[in-house]
Amino acid sequence: MSAAAWTELLERARGGHVPSISRLISGLESRQPGTSEVLTDVYAAGGRAHVIGITGSPGAGKSCLVNALLGELRGRGMRVAVIAVDPSSSLTGGAILGDRIRMQDHALDQGVFVRSMATRGRLGGVSRATVDAVAVLDAAGWDTVIVETIGVGQDELEIVRIAHTTAIVSVPGLGDDIQAIKAGLLEVGDIHVVNKADRPGADRTAAELTGMLMLSDLRASGWTLPVLLTVALDGTGLPEFADALAGHLAWLRSSGELVRRERVAAAASIRAIAKELLIERIQDPAVGSRFDELVEAVAARRTDPTSAARILVDGVARPSDLNPEKTL
Amino acid sequence: MSATPDELTTLITDAVRQAVEDDVKSWEDDELASFLARHPESQEEYLSGSRRTVKRVYTPADVADIPWEDIGLPGRFPFTRGPYPTMYRGRPWTMRQIAGFGTPDETNERFKYLIAQGQTGLSVDFDMPTLMGIDSDDPRSVGEVGREGVAIDVLDDMDDLFAGIDLEEISVSMTINPSAWIVFALYVALAERRGLDLNKLSGTIQADILKEYIAQKEWIYPPEPSMRIVRDSIAFAAGRMARYNPINISGYHISEAGATPLQEAAFTIAMTRTYVQEVVNAGVDIDAFASRLSFFFVCQADFFEEIAKFRALRRVYAKMMKEEFGATNPESMRMRFHTQTAAATLTKPQPLNNIVRTALQALAAVLGGTQSLHTNGLDEAYAIPSELAMKVALRTQQIIAEETNVTQVIDPLGGSYYVEALTRDFEQGIHEYLDKIEALGGTLRAIELNFFQREIADSAYDFAKRKAAGERTVVGVNKYVDEGEGQKIEVHKIDPTSERRKIERLQEVKRKRDNERVQETLAVLLETAKNPDANLMPATIEAVKAQASMGEIVKTLEGLFGRYTETPVF
Amino acid sequence: MTDTPIRVLLAKIGLDGHDRGVKIVARALRDAGMEVVYTGLHRTAAEVVATAIQEDVDVIGVSLLSGAHMTLFPQIIELMKEQGVFDRHILMGGGVMPDEDVETLKELGVQAILGQDTPPDAIVECVRALVLARQRTV
Q1: Residue where a domain stops, chosen among B468, B494, B523
Q2: Which of A172, A328, B230, B426 is positioned for an S-S bond with A202, CB 3.0–4.6 A?
Q3: Is residue A35 located within the same domain as residue A171?
Q4: Do residue B354 and residue B449 come from a single domain?
Q5: Using one digit for the tens of pLDDT, what is the confidence trace for B293-348?
Q6: Is the Cβ of A59 closer than 8 Å to some Cβ of chain B?
């Protein structure tokens, strides 16, 4: 497809044409020719959606919670898009994406859009493709874009950099959960949700979380971190969750934190995408022969790995692109 | 309690065992070794259907550790050799071909045909909307009404289904699960409408909800309220319906979903333990209901393993009921089961081969001591069976019963070194699985953790890959394949007007009934349901008597009980 | 353009819960490097088409053993045409169906119907071949 055809697709997407939105996301994800030109227009058209990251350990009931949240937000008249990210198999590159099974209540609702994405072996679960998909949905006029990630570790940390509001989901009775939160999630959550709160131990989990949050220095920012109890299956606590999300957005706006986060998001996105691009270029077959030479040189101890890597990176990065004269 | 190891009777003396082992050793060194050198065997390792290694030959040494008390005599604890002392010498198993399609009238006609052909029990197959508790006129039912079974919505349908059939004389089995309690209520209501004695009704309703979460995937409500419904059905039947089995705990569907025979056996026992515990917890005495528990298994292709499976199941069950649940009445320890040959083994290419497959599986089921049997129609890989296919299937059973003489001697394979060793191997395998399930926190927790589902998915995938690789022969599919068109058979044709007629009939009933009465009975049902200790059966029976439909009853409780959504595993 | 994985929607339409086949297919396609979106059980034709559009899949694979194929496949095809995506997604089916129905469905636009005895590798090959053929015509 030509760049003009992609631009036309973007226009239709902005008019609410769902197949066009979907195709634009696919085109950007697989970097079809002509898509890089349309990306600037996509970004220019966006900037209104509330981007929410939802993450937590497997088994915490995230998809179920998102399903319940969809119901709550739809009741408030909002149009909501969901991007559900699952890992690809590192062995085969394939994936089975089953998150939407839990969201079928909304399968025929025109005000809900759900897209499943596989990580396709990128570093970190939230990648350029996710960032671009959020941008497309934002440009197409969705009020709220939820990014649900399952991963453990790096992925959740990535998500917060593109989300305005990050909710961390835990569940009572999984000791590991609190552990995972200790490992780094604690500081990135804006809202903490203890799902499946009808199970024994919910109050204790909530109390532990609150305790840990008290000990951290996060309260200094001026946002009081809520710890909410929900039962996604029967809707308990969902109004409070939706209120907290809206409250956080209001706070972001009034405190000026929104502008700061947009910057952080931009910085994180640029860095992440740059890393990805660099890796792709290094893996380009055209670099292959030069790479083989470097391997030989290091193996023969004519040079060291660091110097070889520097040569490789310098060779593929085309420093002229960083020319400050280039108009933005 | 059982005897201590010292008191148990071994089958052979140590001296005999030593002599046998010496013989085996010298045979392996001489005859076997030199023969293998010239003619190697076709495989490195030989595996059963459950992927367990089998030996070249079995001897008394393989059964030396099996106490005589574990083998015993038919009709006596632990029932390894059969639930009754005379077995088929008294009367043969019940020949029970499942049937159901179209409207109740159409199925009624098929029932009468089968009875005329010598069938001795009825078995009803329901269509998908009925199985899921959805009315024929619901938009979700489009295209499925009367398709895979008969469509039932209200009490009048039940009356039509059994028109001209004396329900005190013939036993009726009904394969239905999440909505089973409603069909059970319809059956009871019909009996009352006809003035029949509930204590004379014999038959079975499947109502085995746990295996739905594990394997067959027909569900409505989450496990907890569903278990309560099962408990209520069992408790209702206890003391009222002396010859009726209010549950039929089924390994069959677990197998059809891809489980190995060992998994089928072990998972069924795990479910049984959970049901029994549930009813015991409700305060019902074990001996008051255990004798009415009935079972349903598949008979797969691996001939001897299947026979051993049935024998091991009877033994494990008897010991569990006696030793774990403290049953004292031998009837509470006697496992009785229905068997169906394995639909998943039938092939679309060369369909006549299916007759042979089914006959061999049926023979294994009989040698394994089944109480009733369904033999599959040769055309089941195409559609629901034609009349001719059902007739051949029934004749298969009649030939086994009346021409082969296998019915004359009880458990004729008892004492076979191989079959006894396999039986014990199965018993141990079942216990290994039970221990694993206990370690996970019991059956319900294991379902939640997707333990069963994952085990079954793995077995199914493994089997599919081995079949594709030709490791597992399927004649006519991956070996001895016909070129070109192949055999053609006549298949059952669905009457395209059935669905419309069924919907019209339901709407007519809904017009003519006393709608106020329907609403009243449904309101009482909902109130009853709110008390978890109350039994749902009486209120359900009142509702169906008022001609409330299955769909209406299911919806009435949905708000209270919720709906189940699975987390699939691959 | 980078090597993009084939995306397949696997759907169970209608009321039957027989998912042994669809799960094996899901696993085989994943192991062949494809991205499989699974809808779960008991979906309607409208839900499946809406999902296929949002997920922008190359292939819609419908598994159905309830005997309602002659009702449900035409529904899907009609909905796809209505929404202008009939040429966008390849429609395939799997399950137990009489031969003459299979012929009729193919005439209606179901590009392949795979029976219960189809080996996993053959399913993978079939999906690949159909996607490749479509890429050539686009």
Answers
A1: B468
A2: A172
A3: no
A4: yes
A5: 999 999 999 999 999 999 999 999 999 999 999 999 999 999 999 999 999 899 98
A6: no
Are residues A80 and A2 located together in one domain of the fold?
Answer: no
CB pairs under 8 A between A and B: 10
User: Are residues B297 and B431 located together in one domain of the fold?
Assistant: yes
pLDDT digit string, tens, across residues A163-187 = 899 998 988 876 555 555 555 667 7
Residue A92: closest C-alpha in chain C: C33
Instruction: Give the C-alpha separation, B330 to B76, whole Å.
Output: 8
Task: Report the candidate in C128, C20, C14, C99 with the shortest Cα–Cα distance to residue C62.
Answer: C14
Residue C79 phi/psi, 5-degree rounding, is -65, -40
Contacts of A96 in chain B (CB under 8 A): 570
Domain that holds residue B39: 5-63
Distance CA C112, CA C93 (A): 6
Is A52 contained in some domain? yes
Q: How confident is the model at residue B276 (pLDDT cuts 50, 70, 90)?
A: very high
Number of domains in chain C: 1
Helix axes B417-440, B303-319, angle to 10 degrees: 60
C84 in Cβ contact with C77 (< 8 Å): no
Give the domain range for residue A33.
1-44
Report the residue of A108, A233, A234 to disrupt the B interface, i.e. the one with the largest count of B CBs within 10 Å. Answer: A233
Q: Does residue A259 lie in a domain region?
A: no
CATH number at residue A51: 3.40.50.300
Owner of token pair 């015993």? B72
Spell out which residues of chain A touch residue C80, defining contact as CB-CB under 8 Å: none
Q: Residue A233: its chain B contacts at CB < 8 A?
A: 562
B570:C23 CB<8 A: yes
Domain match, B375 and B329 both: yes
Domain annotation covers residue C117? yes
Query: What is the dihedral angle through the alpha carbons of B84, B88, B90, B92, rounded to the nearest 10 degrees?
Result: 120
